[in-house]
């Protein structure tokens, strides 16, 4: 099965192809009719209407979306009327004239749905009882196919029967189907992102929860005040990590949760774990995928510093880089053979590093392939993981219902966050 990110890219390409096909046919139609306006103006108008129709259809095949899209489609096709039905043939929207003729079209629509094939009929075969001239001369009914199934039909009513009009109806139906498929893929993408966050939680919790509770229980008798403090940090950590809403968060909130994690881990490791933050205040509100940094910090502690005699330094850096924020998690621990990173996309399945492949996939899916993780490492030379995060990205918004403030003093460059 193709990854959703790749599938979305393929569908986007199909969307562009469908758009260009409709646009090309429209240009030919304009030239054939010798329209008074220039072809360039007609193309600009066409692109504007296609853009509006596509944004409406991304909401799915609903009555509201159809009502918004059909006027633009009718103007694009320069026809008498455009209608959209659902998969049962029920009209969701009819824009234009001759809407009283739908009763004559029911059988035609049913055949188009059942056979998954376009149907073309002219006025003479409809049994129209209208006295005098009728605006309906030709009707094309084209199935809207989404994920291999008929989701509805596009009905194009024309005042003149022509092969070009039939082809325009077919290409427009393909354009509509592609927009509807993109909406389906977007939902799949969101569901996959939710599943990936759940997978990360499942991977983090067994390692951390067990050790955290052991650390807290060992302090109950010897230092109850410290135990209560750690228990509060642990409660806040789990509340944030296991929240069920929101796929994105701010860097400030992610760092707050990392602070809780490190507070508990330092109670366990003591002076073996030293932490340094180098955070530019201007990037604290950058939005990134939820729970994308903490697993990298956990990897640095568990796989880098815990295995090094005497421990070492963990450095978290966030810098302003124009339109991006550059974030890195670095340790001076045991490092690893770079060849082990060749299969980084499967690292979260092997357990070699907590969720690193998951995080890599999420960054690529949300922001694009150019935002994949960069890992620098060598035996006995530590490990550095670098993330690039764009300051602005479409549909990437933080969850505003869950927020928190840093409990330490405001972070600045070179400020040590946690001391032994």
TrEMBL record:
Keywords: Kinase, Membrane, Transferase, Transmembrane, Transmembrane helix. GO terms for cellular component: membrane. SMART domains: HATPase_c. The chain crosses the membrane at residues 12-30. Pfam families: GAF (PF01590), HATPase_c (PF02518), His_kinase (PF06580). Coiled coil: none annotated. One of its GO terms (molecular function) is phosphorelay sensor kinase activity. InterPro entries: Bact_2-comp_sensor_kinase (IPR050640), GAF (IPR003018), GAF-like_dom_sf (IPR029016), HATPase_C_sf (IPR036890), HATPase_dom (IPR003594), Sig_transdc_His_kin_internal (IPR010559). Residues 284-393 form the Histidine kinase/HSP90-like ATPase domain. PANTHER family: SENSOR HISTIDINE KINASE YPDA. This is Sensor histidine kinase.
């Amino acid at each position: 099965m193709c990854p959703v990110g790749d599938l979305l890219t393929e569908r986007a390409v199909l969307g562009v192809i469908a758009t260009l096909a409709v646009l090309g046919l429209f240009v030919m139609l304009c030239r054939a009719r010798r329209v008074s306006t220039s072809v360039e103006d007609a193309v600009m108008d066409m692109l504007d209407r296609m853009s509006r129709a596509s944004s409406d259809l991304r909401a799915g095949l609903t009555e509201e979306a159809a009502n918004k899209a059909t006027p633009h489609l009718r103007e694009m096709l320069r026809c008498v009327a455009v209608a959209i039905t659902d998969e049962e043939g029920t009209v969701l929207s009819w824009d234009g004239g001759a809407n009283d003729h739908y009763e004559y079209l029911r059988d035609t629509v049913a055949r188009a749905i059942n056979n998954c094939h376009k149907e073309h009929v002219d006025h003479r075969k409809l049994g129209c009882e209208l006295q005098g001239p009728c605006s309906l001369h030709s009707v094309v009914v084209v199935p809207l196919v989404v994920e291999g199934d008929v989701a509805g039909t596009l009905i194009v009513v024309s005042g003149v029967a022509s092969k070009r009009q039939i082809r325009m109806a077919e290409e427009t139906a393909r354009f509509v189907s592609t927009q509807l498929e993109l909406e389906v893929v977007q939902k799949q993408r969101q569901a996959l992102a939710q599943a990936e966050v759940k997978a990360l939680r499942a991977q983090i919790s067994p390692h951390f929860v067990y050790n955290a509770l052991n650390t807290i229980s060992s302090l109950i008798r010897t230092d109850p005040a410290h135990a209560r403090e750690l228990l509060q940090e642990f409660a806040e950590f789990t509340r944030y990590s296991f929240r069920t809403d929101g796929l994105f968060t701010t860097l400030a909130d992610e760092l707050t949760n990392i602070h809780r994690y490190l507070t508990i881990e330092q109670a366990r490791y003591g002076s073996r774990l030293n932490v340094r933050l180098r955070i530019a205040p201007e990037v604290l509100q950058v939005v990134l995928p939820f729970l994308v940094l903490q697993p990298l910090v956990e990897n640095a502690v568990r796989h880098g510093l815990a295995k090094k005699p005497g421990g070492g330094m963990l450095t978290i850096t966030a810098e302003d880089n124009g339109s991006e924020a550059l974030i890195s998690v670095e340790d001076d621990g045991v490092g690893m053979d770079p060849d082990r990173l060749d299969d980084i996309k499967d690292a979260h399945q092997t357990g070699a590093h907590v969720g690193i492949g998951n995080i890599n996939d999420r960054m690529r899916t949300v922001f694009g392939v150019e935002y994949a993780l960069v890992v620098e490492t060598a035996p006995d030379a530590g490990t550095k993981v670098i993330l690039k995060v764009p300051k602005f990205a479409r549909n990437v918004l933080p969850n505003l219902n869950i927020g928190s403030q840093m409990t330490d003093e405001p972070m600045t460059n070179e400020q040590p966050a946690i001391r032994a």
